[in-house]
Amino acid sequence: MATSPPSDGIPVPANLRLPDAAASGERGEAALVAAAQEGDVRAFEALVSAHEQKILRVLRFLGVPVSDREDVAQEVFVRVFRHLGGFRRGRPFGAWVYRITVNAAHDWRLRFGGTLEEVPWNDEAARIPGAGTDPDLARRLVAGLAALTERERAVFVLRELEGLDTADVARALGITSITVRRHLGLARDRLRRLLEDEKKIPGR
Amino acid sequence: MQRHPNLERAVRALREAEAPETLSPAARAAILRRVAEPGEARGPLAVLFPTSWRLALAGALPLALALTVVVLAARGGTGTPTPEDPIARKVDGRVIFEVAAGSTVTKSAVPFAFDDRHAVRVANGRYADRVGSGPNLVFYRIE
Q1: A131 near B11, Cβ under 8 Å?
Q2: Closest Cβ opposite residue B14 in set A44, A73, A161
Q3: CB of B19 closer than 8 Å to CB of A1
Q4: Nearest residue, CB atoms, B24 vs list A38, A41, A70
Q5: pLDDT-based confidence at A17, cuts 50/70/90?
Q6: Beta-carbon separation of A77 and B35 below 8 A
Q7: For residue range B79-112, what is the model confidence (pLDDT) as tens digits?
Q8: Distances (CA, A) of B76 to A190, B81, B84, B102
Q9: Best residue of B18, B28, B31, B45 to probe chain A, by most A CBs closer than 10 Å
Q10: CATH classification number, B60-143, choose in 2.60.40, 3.30.420, 3.30.1310, 2.60.120
Q11: B126 and chain A in contact, CB less than 8 A
Q12: Contacts of A57 in chain B (CB under 8 A)
């Protein structure tokens, strides 16, 4: 899984005029956000390209099944566009997108009545080809995420799988750093126990 | 924080897994179509002012309205009202215009969009209207 910062390698539309030094990295993203705030759909399309993998990956880890994932991702991007005017320049855009993604996953769960435990994780776990150094452990971890509460799961996904620091997770979820650490501890303990006892993992 | 070797291995394995998902062309097109819809167009106010500022400005509108009435009252507090120079006062939650007898007053929430069907002819030279407490601007045309 690619874990590079979301601001790297952002494609810039050919017709978008940007200062040369700002055509890549965070400054490039800031320029794209600014252009999109002014209604430049091409700039927004570049932001979609930069963040689509991250959003789909987070939605998967948050329990949105593949059948609904693109629909929820669409909703995420439309919300991003709709609320761009309220985004304060200079703030971390990635954390803001994470927050919208987590909220959209929550709304999806409310709308369709699904609970974390009811999400069919077997097919999700099977979709991890190779799964790096230890495929079995990786599959068991994905399956074990379903045993966490919604908050624990969001904290664990953003902190451990997406690699955000505690402050960014707190910002993305609108909670304090202390709460992040508490939920992370609970999630890790529960997953550790599940990984030790394979029979407890839901869906297996 | 306590170390969990199995969990750390599992996290590492999952992060190394090569399973990037991307949007289908249809989904991408649907997003761009939706954001290009007229209802999704980003208005200049939304771009110029963040949410907190927009809320603050909206909250200031009643104050601006009251100030406008006071300024008008100060300007026209003496002399005889004419259609070009009406007198306005705010009294007990009402705005009162003193206009030339026979004038017509038309009220609208939108500037330059007055509906003549709702014009009120002021025979006695006084027109009163209630001032709402919400963040609404009301425009009056006096002819």
Answers
A1: no
A2: A161
A3: yes
A4: A70
A5: very low
A6: yes
A7: 455 556 777 877 777 778 888 888 888 887 776 6
A8: 75, 7, 11, 18
A9: B31
A10: 2.60.40
A11: no
A12: 20-21
Rounded Cα–Cα distance for residues B28 and A192 (Å):
38
Whole-prediction pTM value? 0.59
- In chain A, where are the structural domains located? 1-8+22-114, 116-204
CB A151 within 8 A of CB A183: yes
CATH of A116-204, one of 2.102.10.10, 3.40.309.10, 1.10.10.10, 3.40.50.2000: 1.10.10.10
Q: How many CB pairs under 8 A join A and B?
A: 143
Pick the CATH number of A1-8+22-114 from 1.10.10.10, 2.60.40.10, 3.40.630.10, 1.10.1740.10: 1.10.1740.10
**Rounded Cα gap, residues A3 and B14, in angstroms:** 11
Q: Complex ipTM, two decimals?
A: 0.71
